[in-house]
């Protein structure tokens, strides 16, 4: 199993959140920080429960409790729990320190973009709503970037095919 991490750079975003929340009464998490917490698992872009709990300013176990209480709101395409094999692979690929590895003793929930949207209604706090809006905007931006690259790839393929046809005429 291969996990992809959209890690850009690690910033001290906790300080930034506290500064912004007192300055503008608005929560802002740097885009790079959110991107660094997005993983590709089972072919879906997801954020783990512990990272979302940190963004929302709640304990991971409290977030999981709310999700379990509202299980019907989280179908498999919104949220899933990592299997033991996935958890072990994840630890090996991304566990840099003993503390990080020990923090993953229990299989985390992985939330897709839709699951993250649903979390705002379950947690029902101003902070959760603000953070969710920001995360959804980042997911949309990533989607736009991927579509742009796809269009460029298709254009390159078209040019390549034209050259191949052109070359075959001369042979």
Q: Please, could you describe this protein's structure?
A:
This protein is an alpha+beta fold and 171 residues long. 63% of the residues lie in helices and 10% in strands. The protein is built from 8 helices and 5 strands. It has helices at 13-24, 31-36, 49-56, 60-69, 84-94, 98-102, 113-123, 126-170; strands spanning 4-5, 38-41, 44-48, 79-81, 109-111. It has a 5-stranded antiparallel sheet with strand order 1-2-3-5-4. A hairpin with a 2-residue loop joins strand 2 and strand 3 (44-48). The longest helix has 45 residues, at 126-170. The radius of gyration is 20 Å and the shape is elongated.
Average pLDDT taken over every residue: 77
Enumerate the spans where pLDDT stays under 50 for 5 or more consecutive residues: 1-25
Number of strands: 5
State the separation between the terminal residues, measured CA to CA. 45 Å
**Proportion in β-strands:** 5-15%
Provide the succession of SSEs. Answer: EHHEEHHEHHEHH
Shape: elongated
Provide a count of the helices: 8
- Order of strands, main sheet, comes to 1-2-3-5-4
What's the helical proportion of residues? 55-70%
- How is the biggest beta sheet arranged? 5 strands, antiparallel
Rg, Å, rounded: 20 Å
Structural class call reads alpha+beta
List the helices and strands and how they pair.
Blueprint: E1 4-5, H1 13-24, H2 31-36, E2 38-41, E3 44-48, H3 49-56, H4 60-69, E4 79-81, H5 84-94, H6 98-102, E5 109-111, H7 113-123, H8 126-170
Antiparallel strand pairs: 1-2, 2-3, 3-5, 4-5
Helix pairs in contact: 3-4, 7-8
């Amino acid at each position: 199993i291969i996990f992809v991490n959209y890690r850009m750079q690690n910033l001290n975003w906790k300080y930034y959140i506290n500064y912004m929340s007192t300055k503008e009464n608005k929560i802002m998490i740097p885009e790079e920080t959110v991107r660094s917490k997005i993983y590709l698992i089972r072919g879906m872009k997801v954020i783990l429960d512990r990272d979302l709990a940190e963004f929302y300013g709640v304990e991971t176990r409290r977030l999981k409790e709310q999700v379990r209480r509202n299980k019907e709101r989280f179908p498999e395409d919104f949220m899933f729990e990592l299997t033991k094999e996935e958890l072990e692979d994840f630890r090996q690929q991304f566990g840099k320190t003993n503390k990080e590895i020990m923090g993953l003793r229990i299989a985390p929930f992985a939330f897709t973009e839709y699951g993250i949207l649903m979390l705002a209604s379950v947690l029902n706090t101003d902070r959760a709503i603000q953070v969710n809006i920001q995360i959804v905007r980042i997911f949309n931006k990533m989607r736009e970037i991927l579509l742009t690259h796809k269009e460029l790839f298709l254009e390159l393929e078209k040019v390549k095919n034209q050259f191949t046809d052109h070359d075959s005429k001369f042979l």
